[in-house]
Amino acid sequence: MSTHDNTPAVVDQTTHDRFPNPGMPPHRPRRADVDERASRRAALQVVIFFTLSALGSIAFLVAYYVIDPELKGTIIGIGEINLFHAALGVTMAMSLLGIGLGAVHWAKTLMPDEEVAEDRHPPAASDEDKAAVAQQLSHGWRSSQLNRRTAILGSAGGALGLFALPLIVPVAAGLGPRPRGELYRTHWQDGLRLMIDPSGAPIRAADVTQGSVFHVMPEGWVGHQAFEEHGAEEAMISKSKDQVILVRLDPSIIKSQKQRDWGVDGIVAYSKVCTHVGCPVALYEQNTHHLLCPCHQSTFDMTDDCKVIFGPAKRPLPQLPITVDDEGYLVAADDFREPVGPSFFERERPGLLMGDDA
Ligand code: FES
């Protein structure tokens, strides 16, 4: 029901009879409703707001690529600030504000603001109702004047389209270089001794008694030595990918031949990086031969290729092939033969086996 004489044609006039006006004030046309010049001025203002938003989005991208992220400056009353961050903040605010102001101004000055009421309908619409809805939509489209306001539509589309870029570009560009084959490799390689973490002592096979557990890293990548020789970044990468747990099992309870072949008299080595989301799997239950991840309780069976028997992990822990050197020390026979850690989308890529150039 319209509360003034300019009732939309589609509203049932009998509604007036059945539902009296509950007290709504009479509709007052706005200036832009009755004055064509005011209407054009309001439309121009909306276009300006949307254009400002688009300029803000473009300025954001320019600032993102042009300004040095470390650039500092001093602002009176605030002190030293990072100008890169300030520029991103100001341009993003301009982009958002332009869209907000444009949309609000458009709604308040140009979009129809008449009050209407309609009856509740049964769930399935009749043909007459469908026709009425189509007529209403058509009326709404005409009264919104969007068909005449191509400048507003164009500027709003441009502002919204460009506004997506400040959201997408920093995420896409900020991910850093693609890891490519690095996800498929660790620092383990043929002949590298298994060193106790963090002492850095090598391990003789004879010293690994049944049921004992060692946390090991590759030779040259343990503790301070790794930081001093390779730098902090590489050492941290090594720590996140290379960590291995070493256990001696009774060979008779090992279920798979591969597991036996890649171990030494029941001594087996597995990646400690959980295949769920990468926590260190460090809890070994001697009685059950289960390895537990403390983060979300994924449980791996060490006697059965470290398959997952409980929890959210979807993949067994990768096994590190090991052997002994001439002096009886445990050494790696190669790198892992599959990527360690959580799943990622290219995991099944062919050419993954050890020795391949991933
Ligand atoms: S990280 Fe191991 S279960 Fe989630």
UniProtKB/TrEMBL annotation:
Annotated region described as Disordered, given as residue ranges: 1-36
Gene3D superfamilies xref list: Rieske [2Fe-2S] iron-sulphur domain
Domain Rieske: 262-331
Membrane topology annotation: Multi-pass membrane protein
CDD domains hit by this protein: Rieske
Transmembrane segments: 46-67, 83-104, 151-175
Record carries keyword Metal-binding: yes
UniProt subcellular location: Cell membrane
UniProt keyword list: 2Fe-2S, Cell membrane, Disulfide bond, Electron transport, Iron, Iron-sulfur, Membrane, Metal-binding, Oxidoreductase, Respiratory chain, Transmembrane, Transmembrane helix, Transport
Coiled coil: none
Lineage top rank: taxon: Bacteria
Matching Pfam families: QcrA_N, Rieske
Major site of localization recorded for this protein: membrane
Primary role: Iron-sulfur subunit of the cytochrome bc1 complex, an essential component of the respiratory electron transport chain required for ATP synthesis. The bc1 complex catalyzes the oxidation of menaquinol and the reduction of cytochrome c in the respiratory chain. The bc1 complex operates through a Q-cycle mechanism that couples electron transfer to generation of the proton gradient that drives ATP synthesis.
Family indicated by similarity: Belongs to the Rieske iron-sulfur protein family.
Record-linked PANTHER family: CYTOCHROME B-C1 COMPLEX SUBUNIT RIESKE, MITOCHONDRIAL (PTHR10134)
Protein name as it appears in the record: Cytochrome bc1 complex Rieske iron-sulfur subunit
Gene it is expressed from: qcrA
